[in-house]
Amino acid sequence: MIDVINYFNLRVKTMKKTLLALLITAGATQANAMSYEFDVTLKGYDGSATSSVAYSGQIARHALHNSLKKVVSQGDQAKMLNYLSGKEEGRAIIDPASKEGFAIKQSQVDELSKGKDLLSSAYDGVITGWPGNPTAQELLQQLVELAANSKQGYDPVNGYDYTQLISKFAMGAVFYNKAVNHYLEEKLEADQHPNNEAYKEGVPYTGKEHVWDEAFGYFGAPAHGLELSPKEVVQITKQNPEYFAKADANDDGVVDLKSEMAFAHAYYAASIDASSDTTYFHTIMQAFVDGRQLISDADGERLTDEQRGELKGYAATIATAWQQVIAEAAFKYAGSVYADLEKIAIIEDAQGDVSKAFRDYVKHWGELKGFALSLEAAGRDLGSAQSGLDRLIGFSPVLFGDMQVVALDGQGGFVQTNAGIMQEYKLNMIKVQNLLAQHFDLKAKLKDKTGGMSAVLEQINAAGKSAEND
Amino acid sequence: MLENIVVWLGDELAFAGSSLLDTSKRVSVWYLVSALLFAGALLTVRYGRNGWHRLQPYLSWRVWFHYSARTDYKLWLVNRLLLALLIPKALTQAVWISWLYFYWQEHGFRDLQLGWSTSVVMVLFTLCYFLIDDFSRFFVHWCMHKSPWLWAFHQVHHSAKVLTPFTVFRTHPVEGLLFFLRSMVSQSFVISVFLVAFPNQVSLWQIYGVLVTTFLFNVLGANLRHSGVALSYGPLIEKWLISPAQHQIHHSVARHHYDRNFGVMLAVWDRLFGSWHAGHDDQAIRFGTQQAIDDMGVLGQWLQPFKDVHQLLRDRIKHGRMWLKPFGLKKRPARLDREGRS
Q: Where are the domains positioned within chain B?
């Protein structure tokens, strides 16, 4: 009971702070007023650093992920492994790279952080939504191998777009998992990286400061994210020259990947907000800033249980909204898959060429599947939603001839079987959207193919089903 | 294991208890009180100070603690537990609606694109939802009386010798299951059709989270239907809305009241089916079936219907008549059954 009261107290405090922060944002006259920038608080630090913020290892992994996505479609396995599990020096940042009107400060991964890889940070638990129940780490390796054997990352026989599958799943299995399952969870405990000690010898930041920064780094937002509109964040990721000035917060003529770029789920949060009236990006960003401010305010002292409780409140806000962002993205792509199937039916009726529509179908399915698998790649209990999503989406899209991948054979090849009519897979997409909307309490619901069913169901369920007569 | 069962029992009972404060439940205190105020006001207008005396059955401890009423309460609680197990979990409303929504579209039914405003769609949807819900309740109820097989289960509800608002829960679990299916089928139908015709515009008109018609029905004395307070809406309104007095006629032991007033809110269905009967503030009615079941406890209420079904089956086999008689025969099976034994 006391826990519940504490929780509500915490929520009220969080709300007050958020409200205050919003007011400050609205009235901000100073640049960088709400930036993710914090001074050194570590007691006894005698170095020259003035900032205690550091998450370059996470940004290096964002650069690895972005670059990996580019090389998957080239089909070179050695290159893919270089960005997935390699740690060697001299790896170029293929994306984001400088382009006309949008100069990037760094061009080598080592300029961000040395010796980083994606694979070792990926979730080591089982992924039930892929044949053979691999761990997330095994699945990423498996996907890279399959991509190398496909035609530039595309397998029309089984309906896989490896570029999408690898990219979308890696974001969940590495960034979302590490932040939500690791830094914002177990690392917030009292005995883990206390705030009255340096994170490690010689660094200008405390244990808790760095733990929080690492989670923030994985989200992928620019440090001045609170000053940007969702649309601006989206355009920064797309390296639109018209938005270069918005990205270049310190006006030095180059965009610093360490603090001025938007990556991964920060981009998806902003893109959902830009297309609806949700505020996922700013909610998450604000909670990160507020949490970090709380740690800074402790001024290098060990956090009290109450402070850690409050910090966990911010962490919960982040984790919930982050999960919703991934679920919103899956929701949207389920809608795309549905629309692709409709297109295929129309083209088939007219006896036209379906290859382009089928290519889109496979691409969108890869995005849907990648996001759906991400939800189960962070050690969070999804309850019945997990098996529901696994079954409804299946191990592959339903292909021509009404076939679908159902298992792996002894040699690691995919086994297909008849899965019912291809067009009836649309019904699965309706159910997927309903399940996501209801289970994760989604708000944006882009590309809704259910006609707004989940909202009506909510009303009906609230009104109560009646088993009574008169 | 045992711990889980205890927790589950506790949760279910707590949930049942929470109905007493839940505005979506007819037996919530708000509606119990609003019924009293509504009836009090109406009867005072009609009969002056004497009006309040007519409320006596609603306030009488002898009614609320009558053996029959206590069976109502027990059935309410134990049926909850039983229905939690009986009602199929996998076949949810979402599954039904998704399938129907998909089915209509695959068969060429599309967005009507009428350009109607969302508020117009809301009113139209609420109206259709209400009409289909009310009619399906009427129709299933009608079947319950017309088929001896169904009557065997529905007699539990009619075995109440005193009526209290909680008599609404005095049902056999089999009937509960049928009514659950009824609500699922009728709601899924109307919701799926509207979702296709007016995508992203469908919502119910609600007051305090309750369907507007249900809210009005409950505020305006739905609880009086199952009470000893005879309250008529007057000859004009009763042709359209079923009054408490009319529903009490439905529970009457008098022969000329048999199979009258099956409706819940609207009286039009009864008029269409020829089962409408006017109520009156001064009607004096005895409730029950005048069968042994009237005096039975929970176990009897549960088992007697199965015994009756068994008996029916034996009779049918004996006479070589396995199938139901067509509906609408002059001698109604349900009546036959009740009369035959009285």
A: 2-341
